[in-house]
Amino acid sequence: MSDPVRGAGPLVKRIAGVLYPDSEAERFAWVLDEAKRLWGEPDLIGEPVPFTLTDYYRDIAPCLMRRFVCFRGLADAGGLADWKRAACALEARSRTPRAVNVDPGYVDGARLVLASTKDHAHRVWLRDGIYAEVTLRFRFGGWRSFDYTFPDFRGGCYDAFLTETRRLWLAETAHLRRGQGGARRSPE
Questions:
Q1: Is residue 179 in some structural domain?
Q2: Which of 21, 65, 82, 127 is deepest in the core (most CB within 10 A)?
């Protein structure tokens, strides 16, 4: 669905995955406050899930949790690169060395897209050093992975959160199509 205001990209539900030390729940609260300033109030906050399948983020802490946030309203998918740049700045403010990892992305009816600063064969260049990746697709009533999908996403531990986020997207875009104005645009 195109943005009715600017006619730019499709409208999506903006999300962010937050990795933080398992012993520092207050760190997640800090990130949530910072993210609210950037992207508005949350519609949905997922449960914390232990992040144990890789030690790639060991620079943050040896034991991590991942938690997702879905933000109110619909956002223009064309803003994904800006969201990632803002997330990188938020990470830099978290502490030196960084104390969190924030991965913004979006959900629509068909996919979960995440932004990355790392290039790879399955990622598409956006701009300013930012790439996009379709991490999961929604098909046959559930989330389906690709051969490159990260193991934690492939394992389904975030599926309930993503399904509820998709349901919110479906409801808000249905209101727009019916002209009821029920879909809220998120702050940019």
A1: no
A2: 65
User: 3-7, 23-27, 92-96: which has the minimum mean pLDDT?
Assistant: 3-7
Residue 89 belongs to what domain range? 11-172
pLDDT of 181 over the 60 cut: no
What pLDDT shows up at residue 55? 79
Handedness of CA 68, 39, 30, 115 (dihedral sign): positive
Q: What is the CATH number of the domain that holds 138?
A: 3.30.70
Q: Is residue 168 part of a domain?
A: yes
Pairwise CA distance, residues 109 & 117, whole Å: 25
Please give the pLDDT value at position 186.
Answer: 58
Percent of the chain with pLDDT over 70: 91
Please enumerate in sequence order all residues whose Cβ is within 8 A of that of 136, keeping only pairs 6 or more positions apart, or say none: 111, 112, 143, 144, 145, 146, 149, 153, 162
